[in-house]
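Can you give me the bound-state structure? Components:
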Amino acid sequence: MKQLNVGILGLGTVGGGTYKVLTRNAEEISRRTGVNIKVTHVADRNIEMAKAQVAADVVVTDDAFSVVNHPSVDVVVELIGGYTVSKALLLAAIANKKHVVTANKALIAVHGNEIFSAASANNVIVAFEAAVAGGIPIIKALREGLGANHVEWVAGIINGTTNFILTEMREKGLSYQDVIGEAQRLGYAEADPTFDVEGIDAAHKLTIMSAIAFGMPMKFDEAYTEGITRLEQVDIQYAEELGYRVKLLGITKRTDDGVELRVHPTLIPEKRLIANVNGAMNAVVVKGDAVGPTLYYGAGAGAEPTASSVVADLMDVARLIDASSAQRVPYLAFQPDQVKDLPVLPIDQVKSAYYLRLRASDKPGVLAEVTKILGDRAISIDAMMQKEPEENETEADIVILTHITVEENMNAAIAAIEALSAITGKVVRIRMEELAK
Amino acid sequence: MKQLNVGILGLGTVGGGTYKVLTRNAEEISRRTGVNIKVTHVADRNIEMAKAQVAADVVVTDDAFSVVNHPSVDVVVELIGGYTVSKALLLAAIANKKHVVTANKALIAVHGNEIFSAASANNVIVAFEAAVAGGIPIIKALREGLGANHVEWVAGIINGTTNFILTEMREKGLSYQDVIGEAQRLGYAEADPTFDVEGIDAAHKLTIMSAIAFGMPMKFDEAYTEGITRLEQVDIQYAEELGYRVKLLGITKRTDDGVELRVHPTLIPEKRLIANVNGAMNAVVVKGDAVGPTLYYGAGAGAEPTASSVVADLMDVARLIDASSAQRVPYLAFQPDQVKDLPVLPIDQVKSAYYLRLRASDKPGVLAEVTKILGDRAISIDAMMQKEPEENETEADIVILTHITVEENMNAAIAAIEALSAITGKVVRIRMEELAK
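Here's the bound-state model for the whole set.
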């Protein structure tokens, strides 16, 4: 199998996550790409910490330039952050005709035009999916999935720290000052949260999306930025009374006079899906002329969500290795000889929670009989609701939510319940999914 | 500029939409791909209708095989539907070494394994983004954007007809029988709605997603399918009382014993984003081990949303033409020489609606003065809320929501309002976006 040699610069949160995901999912990743994506070099100032995280055959150094200049490295992954050293490293890698993957939104938003121009001259990839909205593949959606569209506007919750703070302010009635401390304690906000709470981080990401959506250079300097520090609790309440939620939105829109590029607290009708994006999660709405509005939601930060995008970019690079083939991406996402004949479970072996509705005589003991039948089959009850009989009726509805069980157990329990003399007719059964983990 | 010659089979709703999008956005599409994607041939049984829709230089025929066999056609777009003719056409196109794009979910779910195997032998692309969830680029997200992940499960609202029906049942308290007629009148349901309401259409799409997510063959025959026709209004109500919404979900999940592949009505906690996807919209949640849950939302059907995906697939094919370049997808989505220096609007030229909060003396005439200031600047009021003064206070909050205006007008109005003797302190101003169109 062909191999792609990767050098990672910076083995912090995202760097460590990237190494972990590449290692843990190595088999699946090569089944998808047909390429062995192998971390061969790691650079970090803390050599001991780095060595403790990687396999013995990985070269660990504190000299990032030695990785960038190493002839066997095919792709450089820049996860150092900041502008100065990271920019010099990227440009050196590009000059060495190495492909580059970065999660550095500030660098791309501020120096992207220069970096792309160098990369173009050297015919190398600069991939930056991880720079915007963490694990959400929004760059790919904008560049490829929605490429048929004239994009009209993009609006996003693209900073998890501020969305966490706004969610807490709304749900707990707290002030900004109350919440920022809590967010710092929980690790949702930095010791100096300025970049996040003043909207600068969001403006970096918005700048990148505007360039891709509209085909214009990065214009971070011209972005309008207004943060959430002066937002008062009373306005969140009043907005709520009027049917709105307050979110820190990055908005970029085409108009006849120019492009809007702005980050600020924004009232959004509560019935919009994006108004219901809570906590540290991110979401982006893209409005295209053909597709209409589409929304992309997921974790906007964190070690492995960000690594998910870094590794997806590495896979795109790996797919170039055999560019002569039309099978850049295989039909079924996995290489044809790597498609496995996994068995499909029969429905009675599927595990699910259940909603049950039964019609029962309104007399003592019925509930005890029903719960015994469930208990005998190890089906535990999550919630129960017993309705009063309607006037002139002697029967009433009982609704039961169960915990997870195997469907054949549930079928047996339902048959037993239906056989009870106090139960009329069939038991209505609807499956229930938490969709949480 | 290089040209990609496209033959469209079937110029119905989606075929017509595809031609329209390719024509309307031709300039932007070639700015993105560097290729002129040109419809050269169209096949439709109704030649007159087809001729009326396309330019004079397009060859129109009622013989679809003549398009599939035409030497100058590079890509065949199959939008006929069904299994028999469409399959024969696809296989003939593949044998002729032409790339193929299709929106035919039934064909891919049932005959995909055979089609992919033929395509693999001939080294051509079979692209089918439009087969699942219309305009949402979910195939690309699963195959590429989330490729780093071990996918744990996928759950989606992937049939707009049934989601429309369930939304109406919940919001209006109607029965399935009441709503199906309305859905047919509005064009949300077919005259024979069986495929939709019995979950078969959703099972086709789910089968495709399971194959891509888990690297397994299409196993449509083993999918469990349960529709919404027997769902009763009372269960939707009870679910609501317990904090749940009922949705027709397609769920596919990896377990140690096998893969779950099932479509059925499902209770979902109402606080989940997907529980709030209403009307004919689609949404898919993908749970990856690295990224966590991500959600993709948009129009799941319709001429142009589906065309958006068909054309995105054509763009992927076009990008193969110059496969030797690392610039398969340009950095900024548009070819480097096609990036335009669009001006960014200064913030005071941006148009927005506004939330205003003012603190005013509780005496007559204040509101009249405020509304006159707004009216003089052509700022119209959408809603107003006047709070009662707190005990022992003589001032109260006034909250105003305005319609859209230019920010410099609003700034002038706010200055004038703040100058009123009855107004205390600064006016709080937060921008407001409908995000609807």
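A couple of observations. Chain A is about 35% helix and 25% strand. The first helix of chain A runs from residue 13 to 24.
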